[in-house]
Amino acid sequence: MARVAAGIVILPYGLQKLGFYGGVGIASTLTDFKNRKLPQFIAWLVIISQTLGSIALIIGFCSRLAAAGAIIIFTAAIFVHLPDGWQLNWYNKKKGEGVEYFVLLLALLWIVLIYGGGAYSIDRFLDTTILWRPVPAVIPLCR
Q1: Span 81-130, pLDDT tens digits
Q2: Which of 106, 119, 3 lies closest to 54, judged by CA?
Q3: What is the per-residue burial (b if ≥16 Cβ within 10 Å, else e) of 110-142?
Q4: FRET partner for 70 with CA separation of 20 to 30 A, picked from 51, 79, 83, 141?
Q5: What is the pTM (predicted TM-score) of this model?
């Protein structure tokens, strides 16, 4: 449940960066990262991780790898939003949002990173079939 919940929560972030749900789209996302003096490849990693990584979490494919990528992104988000305090901006009285949401999301992601995708995941299916045996180096990341 933690895996699916985290994936569902993260997916709209990625889709907004692609231009869905009233999002700004790829070009504006790249510009935003450039204005923050971050390299473009970081922006692309964030876009890919938040879209494909969240889908991977939802279906349970390479759950630990997807969780690790999201943990890096949302840990950075905590530092970006830390000046805005703990709580979300419920009454529109602050410049930005607080960090409480990210802390909760990180707790879910750490559960996935530690325990893996769970019983109802593609990871578990691949781990119990002969299909996964030829690539033992990938197994720890995708269990």
Answers
A1: 888 888 877 787 778 787 888 999 999 999 999 888 888 998 888 776 65
A2: 3
A3: ebbbeebbbeebebbebbeeeebeeeeeeeeeb
A4: 83
A5: 0.83
SS (H, E, C) the chain: CHHHHHHHHHHHHHHHHCCCCCCCHHHHHHHHHHHCCCCHHHHHHHHHHHHHHHHHHHHCCCHHHHHHHHHHHHHHHHHHHHHHCCCCCCCCCCCCCCCHHHHHHHHHHHHHHHHCCCCCCHHHHHHCCHHHCCCCCCHHHHC
